[in-house]
Predict the 3D structure of the following.
Amino acid sequence: MQRSLAPERLAALVGRLDAAPAYRALCQALQELIGDGRIPIDTRLPSERAVAGALGVSRNTVTRAYAELASAGFATARQGAGTFAAVPITRRRAHDHTLGASKFADDAIDLTRAAGSATPGTAAAYARALAALPAYLSGDGYLPSGLPALQARIAATYTRRGLPTTPGQIIVTAGALSALAIVARTLSRPGDRIAVDTPVYPNAMGALTLGGARLVAVPMGDPLGDAGWDLDGLEATLRQARPRLAYVIADFHNPTGLLMDAAQRARYAAALAATGTQAIVDETLQATGLSNAPMPAPFATFARDAISIGSASKLCWGGLRVGWIRAPQPLVERLVATRVQLDLGGSLFDQLVAAELLEDGPMLAARREQVRRQRDSLAQALQRHLPDWRFRLPTGGLSLWLRLPHGSATELAAAFERDDVHLAPGPAFAVDGGFDRWLRMPYAKSEAQLLDAVQRMARRWAAPAHAGARVRRTASAPPLIA
């Protein structure tokens, strides 16, 4: 599929060209839009004449801007086809080694994972689950759809949130990533297109393409602005690509932390319905809200054919590998049939633990308060030690999406590793390039660790030769983004 950008859409994204000379201002604006993914890689840019008309500038201005854009590596001219968005080869999905397993030095601070220690009270939940286990030992232990008691508790949470759900609509899995892989394998075929907001959680990209599907990038709006989702761009992309599925993170989007409001959910769902695109809604971070404001209704209340996935790992503990699928009843049998091709059911004991934890309201409230303090401590440390870095304080989720004032996040993340601070740079979250001015920094660690990390980062940032520094590794295995 060849994606193209209408001149009116480009003009809306660029805005006013206040700086002089105009060609350089246009080039810089386009470079930023391509670099942060709002203009996806390989998108055909409008003709010079069309852009000149849309922006009210001379054609020569656009010609010079396109030439500088190509010279910087952010565009390629194809004979007879036009000018296409690109990124310098060194920045295309750089740092992909962050998708593997990891082992760091003892004093290292691993911030590639948006996960921390277990919620206080987890050990007691394991003890209660162990006491309940003997009642299940006379059975065979295979539960492809899940432990009925846990299915009922998960279904009840959806119903309380405004989405009536029966236990039979819930399939318990070994984590949210497993749930996503099951759904993608069930509903997609080789060559199918799946729309994905970009930036996006890296491991989701791998799970979605297990069945041979191709990802179509849907650029989000400015993560530091008020809109969050670029719904005009979404609608245009869906019309052009006609994807079979769309992967949506409406609740504390990973990595930006943005929360989609009810009006945006309704419009997003209507755009999907207009192209016959089915939504896979990732609600892994839904329970991590840190504000007292009421949450919007689940995305599936606006898109009734949507399939939702969730997890106990982010709020409770990463070592508890329990996730789930919430699906329309007619799809459940197909999903279970796919699931048993991969495994015959998750750990019964872990499901007993999850049932205990999800029932413990005061414990989960204490966890949220702990995470809120960590978020605020990280924000204060960044404002004090790295005041030029920009971010939006999220109302939930587990990480900040940081914009650098200049330089390459890929190179900077490599430099930080010399000080044993490990972060995931923006290109790791890009579907097909860009975001090299961004870093994701989780606040799931202790306040002391977060302050230590920021101080180390600030010292390295102040050093004149941080870029291009050789990385010291303590092991050959790369880190993992979670």
